[in-house]
Specification:
Number of strands: 5
Order of helices and strands: HHEEHEHEE
Radius of gyration: 15 Å
Number of helices: 4
Helix content: 25-40%
Distance between the termini: 45 Å
Strand order of the largest sheet: 2-1-3-4-5
Structural class: alpha+beta
Oligomer: single chain
Shape: globular
Length: 144
């Protein structure tokens, strides 16, 4: 969803996003599903209200390169001047299960957020069927 009207963000500005379920619902409402490769940043104030900004980083590579963590750190550091909390959404087309590349992005995002004066509330994955938390899939079967 490329055309998000800032008025839509202002309309929900009074809603406090206090838990993971509320954050996930907001990301699902705004992004819908993964169509292209990009990062979205949902910025929140101290009270958990979303700010009327929705920065995006388009054209990200399939796997984060050596500069990804520093780029994310720089971006989050700059945004810390505006908001106090953030949720990062990795958008990409495809299946809902996290790939090794998705997990590498999640790691790069979390490392980039360390030491920044901005609380990272979560990392989500927008895939071809919707938006879910970015977590490693449980292993199938058991080791003998």
């Amino acid at each position: 969803m490329d055309d998000i009207d800032p008025q839509d963000l202002l309309a929900v500005a009074d809603e406090r996003l206090l838990d993971d379920a509320a954050l996930l619902a907001r990301a699902r409402d705004l992004i819908g599903c993964g169509l292209v490769r990009r990062l979205w940043l949902l910025l929140l104030d101290d009270d958990g209200r979303q700010l009327p900004l929705l920065p995006q980083l388009d054209g990200i590579p399939v796997s984060p390169d050596g500069q990804a963590t520093m780029t994310i750190r720089s971006m989050l550091g700059t945004l810390a001047e505006v908001g106090s909390q953030a949720v990062v959404v990795l958008e990409r087309p495809g299946a809902p299960s996290a790939t090794p590349d998705d997990l590498a992005w999640g790691d790069a995002i979390r490392r980039g957020a360390r030491g920044i004066d901005l609380r990272l509330r979560g990392v989500l994955l927008a895939h071809g069927r919707g938006v879910d938390p970015l977590v490693d899939a449980p292993a199938s079967g058991s080791a003998a």
